[in-house]
Amino acid sequence: MNEILNGFINAALPINLFAALASVAVGIMIGSLPGLSAAMGVALLIPLTFGMTTETGLIALAGVYCGAVFGGSISAILIHTPGTSSAAATALDGYQLTKKGKAKKALQTAVVSSFGGAMISAVALYLFAPPLARLALKFGPAENFWLSIFGLTIIAGVSSKSVVKGLISGVIGLILSTIGMDPMTGTPRFTMGSIYLYDGLPFTATLIGLFSMSQVFILSEKTIKKMINIEVEDTGEEGLTKKELKLITPVILRSGLIGSIVGILPGAGGTIAAFIGYDTAKKFSKNKDEFGRGAIEGVAGPEAANNAVTGGSLIPTLTLGIPGNSVTAVLMGGLIIKGLQPGPDLFTVHGKITYTFFAGFVVVNIFMLLLGLFGSKYFAKISKVPNSMLIPIIFVLSVIGSYAIKNSMFDVSIMFIFGIVGYFIKKFNLNPAAIVLALIIGPIGEQGLRRTIMISQDDYMSKLVSSPISIALIVVSILSIASPIIISMKEKKK
Amino acid sequence: MFNKVKNKTNLLLSAVFLTIATIYGILIKELSAENALYPKFILYLLIGLTIILVVQSMLGEDIEENIFKDFDFKQFGQVFISGIAYIFAINIVGYFTSTFAFLILLFILLKNNKKVLIITSIIFTIFLYFVFKIFLNVPVPTGIFI
Asked: Is the ipTM of this complex over 0.90?
């Protein structure tokens, strides 16, 4: 309990409050710009956090994450173009409300619901992360190997359109993770004689390439059109009333729970949670006919759910080292760069940092609520920034971001190469999140496998499957691959 | 080439993956048995999954999908080439000078309003100077200029 309180005291330091406020604002801007993603924002912010303490840096990363998830709803509501994919369900009723001249009401519903969902997920974070981290103590080399396999199968299986392509993306990431010194013997592998690659691929530069530079190329390939003019003038229209707040409260509670659970399941992510949140809101609503025509419950449902994913997805990321989606994969990269390894140590040795981060997560969402309530119309203006302005700016930020980590132009080259790789990955529907995850967990899996072999010599196969945790991980790995295939077969039959 | 049907796109991808697998396999041969153990495991995974992708693509339905529809070669080329030139110029003319020039050039190529592009380039370069030079103390490359 003391740790939790101390976390809040630390999070309330002026520098942390400033980092939270600024990062949420940046996150909302990024989220409200269609075409820019939360993962991109977090990747670009990592180099900036180098000048901050670990706690402040992590709060800033969480701020961008939470802000961007909410920000996506602004353009979804106002111009029917979700700023992020997780806001797609919000566009269904949000835009209808705008067409009826109730944009203010829709935006306020979105921010209140996002806040509610995030708070529920914060409770889940406090409740479930520490015991799950303690479970990680029981993991030996064999379990770590199967955990790495499970992480890959779940993110590849659930978050990709094609399971095979998702898995191949993971395997490509594993190949990339073998570049550098062998984790057991220290011998260089696949470095092509370059000393720059002895430590493996520069992680942040690779991230920035895959998520930010690739987006520059994606935005550049289509002829840039003039942006739609959005005018959200204060016409004195009514915002969210007390009666409506009462109406959406149960929706927020339900969707908050759904989002937190979906967030905990690695790979599922905000988009899935938002659609489940929308469907559930519709099922429980007395005004089912209003859905699709501008129901505020249709905005509250997906928004509470997708923001609840933020806290939920941090649980497997921080405890088992398995990020739930591409943003948390990038965020986990930031964590590792700061010298923190996911697992029980985060809650014991680094307890101060972790609980400050948790409290910072709450603070970040309070700022999101305030900025959303009082600043949505200003953020809406930012979503008018044309791609012709964004492309050069993201390019320049990607270059300096990848350079600043080691002051190395080699890293800039790697970033650019992975920008091209990332572009083709997106074009061919491969999964960049699976690649990033594999880059992180590849060495853990390799060490797990080789240590198991070392310990058990010839009998390593039985050692690999000897513990109940290993067997459970094998079963869930198989399930995570099989379930999307079975679901798609059933859908085809229908 | 890979514009007409989806399964052709996947076949092309499979060819790329098999090429990667071949190169990776050749490089693995240079490693000791101990160091090559895990890479071999990954290699077999890649080959196995690529075979599944090939089979899926052969059996799959033909779906019209042009992934490079409405591709603006001129605009893409402008961004790509000026970007490479910018990265090369950083060490020659200095980071801030090349960044300012790159911003101006690309803003013009992408047809932004002249007044806006000049103001944005100046403000953004100053912002970068303050954040990376003053706040983060990053020793950015200097060339002829800063």
From this structure: yes
